[in-house]
Design a protein that fits this description.
Elements lengths: L6 H13 L9 H5 L4 E6 L7 E4 L5 E6 L4 H17 L5 E4 L7 H14 L2 H10 L4 H8 L3 H10 L8
Parallel strand pairs: 1-3
Antiparallel strand pairs: 2-3, 2-4
Helix pairs in contact: 1-4, 3-4, 6-7
Length: about 160
């Protein structure tokens, strides 16, 4: 793997949060997405596909699976947004939420995790909510799985991180 591949998604997440003056969760997607040529649509894809990103000449599209809970769609939205924002050579990308080997997919996941759940926010609310994963997930508008993964990565929970 390329050294430092994890740092760029974190930098972009921190910069967007700063640029838009976002200081606490939950993040309102409309606040940011209105500034970009992106149309977000809900689609009926069963359960296999979480989202897609399609780059257009004028307008870009992010499709989210309407069959998935809003918390999962929230993570998928920002995963796909990162493809738009940073991966200029990508014209179509499908996200199914499964383990991904692609460096670009890993970057998009890192961005979504750091954007929706910045370390300083997670640590503050972890203490305030006594480490309750369900309460944290609700506060950040993410799935319990996403929050659990973030807590493990920050070594606030036991497990791989």
């Amino acid at each position: 793997m390329i050294a430092g591949y994890r740092s760029r998604p974190v930098q972009v997440a921190e910069q967007l949060l700063s640029d838009y003056g976002i200081k606490r969760p939950p993040i309102n997607p409309g606040l940011i997405l209105l500034d970009f040529p992106i149309k977000v649509v809900l689609e009926d894809w069963g359960t296999d596909v979480s989202g897609i990103f399609v780059r257009g000449e004028v307008l870009n599209h992010i499709g989210l699976n309407k069959n998935h809970p809003v918390e999962r769609r929230h993570f998928t939205l920002w995963h796909e947004f990162y493809h738009f924002y940073e991966h200029k050579s990508i014209y179509f990308c499908e996200f199914n939420g499964r383990v991904k080997a692609s460096l670009l997919e890993q970057e998009a996941d890192i961005f979504a995790a750091h954007f929706l759940m910045p370390e300083r926010w997670v640590r503050r609310y972890f203490d305030q909510l006594f480490g309750n994963v369900g309460a944290l997930a609700k506060r950040f508008t993410v799935s319990k799985t996403a929050m659990t993964n973030r807590l493990k990565a920050l070594k606030l929970m036991e497990g791989a991180g």
